[in-house]
UniProtKB/TrEMBL annotation:
Occurrences of domain VOC (ranges): 4-119
Domain of life where this protein originates: Bacteria
Protein name: VOC family protein
Species this protein is from: Ramlibacter pallidus
InterPro entries attached to this UniProt entry: Glyas_Bleomycin-R_OHBP_Dase, Glyas_Fos-R_dOase_dom, VOC_core
PANTHER family: F18B13.24 PROTEIN, PTHR46142
SUPFAM superfamilies xref list: Glyoxalase/Bleomycin resistance protein/Dihydroxybiphenyl dioxygenase (SSF54593)
Amino acid sequence: MIHGMNHFTVIAEDLDRTLAFYTGLLGLEQGPRPDLGFPGAWLYAEGCAILHVYSDRPVPPQRAGVIDHMAFSARDLKTVKARFDAQGVKYDLRRQKGAGTWQLFCTDPNGAKVELDFDPSETD
């Protein structure tokens, strides 16, 4: 029945700061969003809407809830690391045993854990 992941949704305390994180730092692009009757944004990767951000309700006290994190496939580890370092964003970079996949973990401005996965052939 399921054939793919449609999108994640993040509740933003500060919409502008959250959009800056996902667009300016992670490189997603803001795109068309239907009028849903509340403020927010759709963020796209390579033409596909993958992240819905809205800011009309309070962030739950238990930030992560039952979902631990969201993971994205990414490219150009060196550039991403340089961008994070330049903006002073903390991250944890790990190399997955066996597969060799590079995994960069960070937290968005709202406390959501984000994982960026890079091909094993990339260098740090």
